[in-house]
Amino acid sequence: MKAIQITAPGELKVVEVNKPVMKDDEILIKIKYVGFCGSDLNTFLGKNPMVKLPIIPGHEVGAVIESIGKDVPAGFEVGMSVTVNPYTNCGKCASCRNGRVNACEHNETFGVQRNGAMGEYLALPWSKVIPAADTTPRDCALIEPMSVGFHAVSRAQVTDIDVVMVIGCGMIGMGAIVRASLRGATVIAVDLDDEKLALAKQVGAAYGINSGTENLHERLLELTGGLGPDVVIEAVGSPFTYRCAVDEVAFTGRVVCIGYAKSEVSFQTKYFVQKELDIRGSRNAMPADFRAVAKYLQQGTCPKDELISKIVTPENALSAMEEWAANPGKVFRILVEF
């Protein structure tokens, strides 16, 4: 079958690989769309230390069920639209024992620690296949990245009385904005791009702040009555945004970090104590987060077309990645159509 492989930094090509053989407890899915995410871009640029090349990228999947193993329980049907939970969990580490399988110490994500989904077929355990019958396969490819933002909102324990600042309006940040808004919170979106801020308002943000052209601190004080946001969700992964989250969050606030900073970050640690902050990491997503995103997409209020920057064939994937690398700030999601 046809698949996409990143063979070396800056090199991506279409290859032929064996079609997977389905086991009795597995489901064979026909891949329709796979999204390129930021980790795939870093892999392409040679900046992803968790990846060993060559690798098949991709873990944002929109597919249909091709066939079903004989030991798979009821609830799955041939032709059904599905997405994929692309993480593994060992069942033995501290995270798994505590029921937080999304943060498994030994997790292997598709396209990162193991070959991903960017091929024509994929066979995987039925428990990793998430039905989304009323969602198109194209839109199913949006579920995984948005679910990461949904999970961060759960980690922040957001309620309807909170003011939530989301730093970074990429796909994951958009997911956080949507989920916080659905919970009734007042959401402030922060980014450097006015187009992304406009889209953030479409999905639920009450306010947008361009931190490149506006004084972020003063605007936050103005919007929060001088208190600062109750929750800050960091969805960028830079030393500046990490420090900003701690500096701007309200006293006794919660900071949830999704982004991976590429270098060490120095903090005024007095704020940890003076503000009595809760600082939490947020990794991947839980099955419930996937289901919640699928439910949201089925409501028909999401501007899905605006979240998809481009749809390309496997043969055009290299040029699409090169364009994204040259101008990363202007891309939400590039989907590869099989």
From TrEMBL:
**Alcohol dehydrogenase-like N-terminal domain segment(s):** 24-133
Molecular function terms, GO-annotated: oxidoreductase activity
**Superkingdom as given in the UniProt entry:** Bacteria
Tell me which UniProt keywords the record has, alphabetically: Oxidoreductase
Under the heading InterPro entries, the entry gives: ADH-like_C, ADH-like_N, GroES-like_sf, NAD(P)-bd_dom_sf, Zn_alcohol_dh
* SUPFAM superfamilies (alphabetical): GroES-like (SSF50129), NAD(P)-binding Rossmann-fold domains (SSF51735)
* Gene3D superfamilies referenced in this protein's UniProt entry, alphabetically: Medium-chain alcohol dehydrogenases, catalytic domain, NAD(P)-binding Rossmann-like Domain
Pinpoint the Alcohol dehydrogenase-like C-terminal domain residues.
172-297
Instruction: Identify this protein by name.
Output: Threonine dehydrogenase
Q: What's the source species for this entry?
A: Bacteroides luti
Lineage here is:
Bacteria, Pseudomonadati, Bacteroidota, Bacteroidia, Bacteroidales
